[in-house]
Write a structure and sequence with these properties.
alpha/beta, 2 domains, 7-stranded mixed β-sheet, two-stranded antiparallel sheet, 10 helices
Length: 293
Amino acid sequence: MSSKKFKKPDPNIWKQITVAWGKACSPSRPSLGDIKIYGKFILQSIGKKKNCRVLILGATPELRSLILKYGLSKKIDIFLLDLNLEMIRAMDEFVEIPNSKEKRVIGDWLSMPFKNEYFDLVLGDEVLINVSLANRNKFLMEINRVLKSSGAFITRASHENPLAKKFTLEKALNKYSNYYLQNKLKFNQAVNYVLEEIFQNSYFKNPKGLLSLKFLEKDCYKALKSPNPLKRLIIKTILDDYSSLFKQSWSWESRPQQLKKFKEYFQIKEIETARDYLYSYILPIYYLIKKLQ
């Protein structure tokens, strides 16, 4: 997440991200099941503390509302940390319970502008995937540094899905268009699951272990010529509403590799997985306690 490695963002990207987030569903966004697990872990971590500080990495709306939902806001100072204020503002409209006392900090996750042992809790949803494999240890070390001695890091973190090697765009379109026609899914869900499968499959399309829709962009444009109008509509929706995602890439690793990195800096207190959406099995939520270095 080093700011030195970031290009100046497209001025329209925040609008694109806002549109995409508004139409996204799980696993792209935390589900009700995920939120329940997050809430349980948060209460276990800071529920009995009188005064504490919480850092939210990024601007995930569901996490920003959680503290207020549990009535903990009066005794908690909440900080948001992101590279760009526009990203935070873009997510504001999706925050169920706005918090005027949020402290918005612009900064790098790899070099956080906070003192040592400053926070009781760090939260982040799918933050690890945004950090390159080369910088992942540095990122976890920074979280460890800003946490108090008994502090916790709670995060949903995806890992590679070996089954995704067999995913194809055509199979995804066939499966989820049929589910939609059978009233098993809403149209928006069908779009999201096609997107998710080709996203996961992209990991196996390049040797660097990156997830990026750009590796399947040509396939998407070819699919626009499908004789099936529903399939064409699904692809057109992906290309129109999620265009910003085709310009980005993310990093994945296996679950054993992920656990090994976590264990270098944290004690794993609990791991729990939601069961209310497809592919939740590769998106466990970790309740981690700071390991003294």
